[in-house]
Design brief:
Order of helices and strands: HEEEEEEEEEEEEE
CATH architecture: Ribbon
Shape: elongated
CATH topology: Umud Fragment, subunit A
Radius of gyration: 20 Å
CATH class: Mainly Beta
CATH superfamily: Umud Fragment, subunit A
């Protein structure tokens, strides 16, 4: 009887420990709105890796979930375009970081707006939705503070046709030369 009670207690302790660790490392998130199309659709369910940024800093191209400065009660999902200390500018239907045009294969339509050169403050990130012309993001004159980042989009778990890793792309800066980039199909 004592052995069975001890085994049950160990199983309960292990289950509670797994639950606590998973709650601090992973979070479920449902995409609301169309600001991240075509990468994510409304109603798509994702798992967010909340632990990754304890080991490394966010990178350009990471899709993050965060508390926006305009509404701390609603979580947003956007792509990091510029890092602390970078300068960003949007002109001629393209995004420029530190003077170099970004190669962005994940957007459907280029931005139909302009943004004068802006330096990103320390401990802040410049984020844009992949649906450039239908997104409340940093082009509206706000940035995301490091402490407001919840985590990185990791896995798509719903709907089944979208199962797989989230499309986080390392952003490539185009050189202002005649260098050719691969053509998308």
């Amino acid at each position: 009887m004592r052995g069975s009670l001890r085994e049950a207690l160990i199983i309960i302790i292990v289950a509670v420990a797994i639950f606590i660790v998973s709650r601090t490392a992973i979070q479920s998130f449902v995409v609301v709105g169309v600001s991240m199309e075509p990468s994510f659709e409304e109603g798509q369910r994702l798992l967010i890796n909340k632990a990754i940024y304890r080991f490394r800093e966010p990178q350009r191209g990471d899709v993050i979930v965060f508390h926006p400065p305009t509404n701390q009660r609603t979580d947003y999902i956007k792509r990091i375009v510029a890092l602390p200390g970078d300068t960003v500018e949007i002109k001629g239907e393209a995004v420029y970081v530190n003077g170099s045009k970004l190669y962005e294969p994940y957007i459907e339509d280029p931005p139909g707006y302009t943004l004068g050169e802006k330096k990103i403050p320390a401990n802040n990130y410049f984020v844009l939705g992949d649906n450039r012309n239908n997104s409340n993001d940093s082009h509206n004159d706000w940035t995301v503070k490091r402490e407001d980042v919840i985590g990185k989009a990791w896995l798509s778990i719903w709907p089944p046709r979208e199962w797989g890793f989230a499309p986080n792309y390392p952003l490539q800066e185009q050189l202002a030369s005649t260098e050719l980039l691969p053509q998308l199909p």
